[in-house]
Amino acid sequence: MGYRTSLVAISWWQSEYEVVDQTTDGNISLDKLKKKGIVHNVSDDVGYIDAGAIIRKCDFPEYYPPANDPYYDITKKWFEKLPKQTEFIFAHFAEYGDNLTLALMDIK
User: Fold this and answer.
1) What average pLDDT does this structure show over 62-89?
2) 1 pLDDT band (50/70/90 cuts)?
3) Who's near 99: CB < 8 A, 6+ residues apart?
4) Which residues make Cβ contacts (< 8 Å) with residue 46, sequence separation at least 6?
5) C-alpha 85: how far from its chain's center?
6) 101: confidence class by pLDDT, cuts 50, 70, 90
7) What percentage of the chain has pLDDT greater than the value 90?
């Protein structure tokens, strides 16, 4: 069936992590992340796949969806309003439905 994308912006200061913002309204290119080799299965359930990637803040715009994608403006606006102290973004692709979408994309 598909997957839902969650984007979580994280700061790190003096060995302390903090979630500074998050959204389930945006989306980024899973294909581009896969080509970089930074997507991994983060699920603890053997029959289920959740994918995750950690993206440097300065690299994040590389993974925007195409400009004609309905998620482009939403994702870009979310990113541009992130606080300065954001260090990186965790992207989580949560599989739902028939559990085939991410499995067929060879995420291990």
Assistant:
1) 95
2) very low
3) 47, 48, 49
4) none
5) 19
6) low
7) 63
Q: What is the layout of strands, in order, in the sheet containing 16-23?
A: 16-23, 2-13, 86-96, 50-56, 40-41
Strand locations in the chain, DSSP E?
A: 2-13, 16-23, 40-41, 50-56, 86-96
Phi, psi at 10, each rounded to 5°: -130, 135
The answer to whether the pTM exceeds 0.85 is yes
Whose structure tokens read 């997507």? 39
* Residues composing the chain: 108
Output DSSP code: residue 59.
Answer: G
Instruction: Determine the distance from the C-alpha atom of residue 95 to the mean position of all C-alpha atoms in its chain, rounded to a whole number.
Output: 13
H-helix segments, the chain: 30-36, 71-80
Output the average pLDDT for the chain: 88
Rounded Cα distance between 91 and 50, Å, is: 10
